[in-house]
Amino acid sequence: MPFLDRLQRWADDRPDGTAVAVAGKRLDWAGLRDAAAARVPASPAVTVLAEPNSLDFVVSFAAAVAGRRRCAVLDPTWPPELLEGLRSRILAAPPGGMGDLGASAGLTDGPPDTPFLVGLTSGTTALPKAFSRSRRSWQVSFDSSIEFFGLTARDRTLAPGPLAASLNLYALAECLYAGSEFHALERFDVGDAHTAIAHDGITRLVLVPTMLRLLSERGLAGGVDASGLRSIICAGSKLDARTLEAARRWAPSATIFEYYGAAELSFVAGAGLAPAGAPASNAGPEGTGIGRAFPGVDIRILDGAGRPLPDSEVGNVSVRSGMVSDGYLWGDDGEALRCFDGWYTVGDQGYLADGILHLLGRRSDMINTSGTNVYPHEIELALASVPGVAAAVAAGAPDGLRGQRVVAAVLASHGGLTATQLRAGLEDILPRSKRPLDYYVVSELPLTDRGKPSRPLLLAWIAGNDPRLRRLG
């Protein structure tokens, strides 16, 4: 793992400086090094971690990737039978899929091309796919993201979500690599996050849009001082207008970064959205635009046969970089991660225009209605711009006449929202063929276990007449 040699350096240079803080409990650089080093001899060749956030988690993770060791980090909230099945499968994985299983002594980084991390796609019931990452791939990612986000040793990063999520686990390792102080909570709590931001000198947030919306809106209402934030890094989906506006008001000095990446690909493209009051030319890409390529990343749009497509034509978003994973240990159906002569894609659809990547969503999410291909992401962004809409989720429901019909659910920012208002709000934004036929209002968004909008869950709510949603006439 490429942060252990750096950890030794920071422990020598500033042994008493805070390295990690979780829920107010702290470890300095020397303490973290010594605790992890003491645990290395008992760490097996392959470790499976399924623990809530704690300092002990950080120590265990550092020891679990020392030398040639490998670690798989599982979400402890997943069902026990799923966790046990994954644990058994990971520990029984053949050497050919995991590399050399020999464990070396000492808290040192292993050879760059050796695998160190077993990544899992998110899941709650179905078996997640597992993929492998080399130490070199994360070191390249560190160098790229530190340059792109402007991380310095003076920053204090708060990642308020679970360390089992790849976004937060990466932020932890990135900070250890950069010699930058990292903070986490025992579990996500708005009040605890506000306390850390206001009193611990936090300068940088790493989180998903739903968390940012909660922190911003409640922070504004409660007068929580976020003027010390200089950067906010948001991943999972493009920020809607309401969340962005609230975040800019709450943290007026922060550059807000949104980016596109995938667990198997690492970083692909992104943009830094300027603080409030900055020139409009620095406001960031509009609509479906997500930004330009990360340092060290090349982007092409390829068709299903791997042929390059011209600008503005929709196809597979494909990348070439040193950050791409080593591929799947299991779960590969031949489509999840495809390679075309060195260009990798996970099937996300998009197009390039003037160097800006426009992201439309997964091919599997695409709605085919009356012969027209519609991407839910386009609909969700359009609905989020309608007054009275806090957030939206769109999906394709089965339809005997059309094949699929476009349906959408909105989370209202105030009462009294009607289908007529939603239809009127989309008239000048979306073509008629892409507009929803059915609208629902929800008391809460249907989300995955990682806090992302879930279109399958929305369809399940509709089919089951779930009390959390109501159809609008």
Report what the structure shows.
By secondary structure, the protein is of the alpha/beta class. The chain folds into 2 domains: 4-359, 3-Layer(aba) Sandwich (Rossmann fold); 366-472, ANL, C-terminal domain (GMP Synthetase, Chain A, domain 3), CATH 3.30.300.30. It has 13 helices and 26 strands. The protein has a 13-stranded mixed sheet, with helices on both faces. Strands 3-4-5-6-16 form a 5-stranded mixed sheet, with helices on both faces. α10 links the parallel β10 (231-234) and β11. α1 crosses α2 (29-39) and α9 packs across α10. It is globular, with a radius of gyration of 22 Å.
Radius of gyration: 22 Å
CATH class of the largest domain: Alpha Beta
Beta-strand content estimate? 25-35%
CATH topology of the largest domain: Rossmann fold
Mean pLDDT: 89
**What structural class results from the helix and strand content?**
alpha/beta
Tally of individual domains: 2
Instruction: Characterize the largest beta sheet: strand count, sense, and whether it forms a barrel.
Output: 13 strands, mixed
| C-alpha end-to-end distance | 55 Å
- The count of DSSP E runs of length 2 or more, i.e. the number of strands, is 26
The tally of helices reads 13
Looking at the overall shape, the CATH architecture of the largest domain is 3-Layer(aba) Sandwich
Q: What are the low-pLDDT stretches, counting only 5+ consecutive residues below 50?
A: 95-99
Work out the helicity level.
25-40%
CATH fourth-tier homologous superfamily of the largest domain: ANL, N-terminal domain
The coarse overall form would be globular
The spatial strand order of the largest sheet comes to 2-1-8-7-9-10-11-12-13-20-19-15-14
